[in-house]
Design brief:
Blueprint lengths: L12 E2 L14 E5 L4 H17 L2 E8 L1 H6 L4 H19 L5 E7 L2 H8 L5 E6 L13 H8 L4 E5 L9 E4 L4 H17 L3 E7 L7 H25 L5 E7 L2 H8 L5 E5 L12 H8 L5 E4 L5 E2 L9 E4 L4
Helix pairs in contact: 1-3, 4-5, 6-7, 8-9
Protein name: Universal stress protein
Family: Belongs to the universal stress protein A family.
Organism: Labedella populi
Length: about 325
């Protein structure tokens, strides 16, 4: 499913207990949204490869947009069934040993997916967004889904690099940042990749040069603590750490340019987190590699129409 442009509903914020505060077993399901577009096919191919490598279950979902259904002729349910059949076969060709299910539902794509799958391993969607759009207002449905979902959301660019390796995680002190570290360590372990932990610090100039050493020392100490935590969860995991200089969003984009996956927390705020933090907002609008956005489960937007419960079908495990 391509999450391109779309409007906002009036946001309502809800709270739940943290999901990643401790090392708990995470759900083993990848949900991928499809709509027949090229970006959604890229997301499907990426999710299928990921499921095959990690031994996860794959659920392929198509949402018949309620507004579109009222304004078109024909049988949208039938077209949706045909699309799901085609996309399931495509996924099976890439992931012959993966258990694949399909699901068809009706409603607004953002709310249908986020409400139907609130606690899966990850939701995967495609995006055609490119280019750095600093200061842009929320207009991308990718951002809407990130804000609405309690599950991690992985946004895949239209042409992801299939030979890229390594999982890069942006480290910060927020609850969502700590959740991102746990998620990234698990992804690196399950995919057999190395984990690269990145901490950004400002570029020091003029009178602030004296503070640069202290800032770097704090960053190094934070990276070392994160390394120890990841090693305690997954002994034997290959871990590297880096301090990068400059604004966090472009620094993370540069650091992950050749990575298989970039992981960031949904909000970088230590208290009263926003629905989507500025760093995450800018990273997604400049997306270059598959990017996972993870929340500790503290806040999510919950507005929009309640979707029709999907009908699920399972293909035989291969």
């Amino acid at each position: 499913m391509t999450l391109g442009s779309g409007g906002w509903s009036s946001p309502v914020v809800t709270t739940t207990p943290p999901r990643y505060g401790t090392e708990v077993e995470m759900d083993n399901t990848l949900v991928v949204g499809v709509d027949g577009s090229q970006p959604s096919r890229a997301a499907l191919q990426w999710a299928a490869r990921c499921a095959e490598r990690s031994g996860r279950r794959l659920v392929v979902v198509h949402v018949v947009d309620g507004a579109a259904e009222r304004s078109t002729t024909g049988h949208p349910d039938l077209r949706g069934e045909e699309l799901l059949t085609t996309e399931r076969l495509s996924a099976a060709a890439v992931a012959p040993h993966t258990e694949i299910e399909t699901a068809l539902t009706v409603g607004d794509p953002v709310w249908a997916i986020s409400r139907t799958y609130p606690d899966v391993g990850a939701i995967v969607v495609g995006s055609h967004k490119t280019g750095f759009l600093r200061g842009s207002s929320f207009g991308s449905r990718s951002l809407q889904l990130v804000a609405a979902s309690m599950s991690p959301v992985i946004v895949v660019p239209a042409v992801p690099e299939s030979t890229a390796r390594g999982v890069v995680v942006g480290l910060d002190d927020s609850p969502d940042g700590r959740a991102a570290l746990v998620f990234a360590a698990r992804e690196a372990h399950d995919l057999g990749d190395e984990l690269v932990i990145v901490r950004s610090i400002p570029v020091a100039r003029g009178e602030h040069l004296r503070d640069a050493d202290r800032e770097r020392d704090r960053a190094v100490a934070s990276l070392e603590a994160a390394r120890r935590r990841a090693e305690s969860m997954y002994p034997g995991l290959t871990i590297r750490s880096r301090v990068v200089h400059g604004p966090a969003a472009p620094a993370l984009v540069r650091a992950s340019a050749r990575a298989a996956l970039l992981v960031v927390g949904r909000s970088q705020a230590v208290s009263a987190p926003a629905a989507v933090g500025r760093v995450t907002h800018d990273v997604l609008l400049n997306i270059g590699v598959p990017t996972a956005v993870v929340s500790d489960g503290v806040t999510a937007l919950t507005s929009g129409p309640v979707p029709t419960r999907p009908e699920s079908r399972r293909s035989p495990a291969r």
